[in-house]
Design a protein that fits this description.
The protein has three helices and seven strands, in the order E-E-H-E-H-E-E-E-E-H. The protein is α+β, with helices and mostly antiparallel strands. Helix 1 runs antiparallel to helix 2.
Amino acid sequence: MPKKSVYDPTYGYDPETNTVRVVQHDLARLLLMFRSLMREQKPGSWEHMRDYDLSFERLADAVDASSQIRHGKRWTGPDLRMRCTTTEPVYDWPEGAPYDGEATFTWNVPGYGSHASEDDQVELYSNMALCGFSWAKDDRPRRMDGLPDCSECRREVQLGADRPCGAW
């Protein structure tokens, strides 16, 4: 008798790679529901990047990556509704975080690509982006539009994004 595959295309589970395939729309709706439920929590009840948040940020990364591939040049950037922000009171932000609850901006450093940082901190040369990039005294960063090059810095820009909560 031939060996029967365990793979079930109905649910998209592949035991060889331990992966589950879901439709992008379903995953996006799940993320939006998570953000909606999270915003109903009492202030300070969600320690940033400790609880389920990091996992959901990674899922949002996957949705953004698939959207970028599907839309190509028409892609307008990540769907920020699926992301946490520095302005949501439910989060208990780590003390001494590089963004300190403020909005972040994208800068281009020649030879290093683009990184995110607080606008007023670049002159102090003491700030550090989420990816660990920091400014040297002789660096001459210049402001640029769009998203940074690395995924950590893209997330930092998303964290500082100013958007109304619950408007979707």
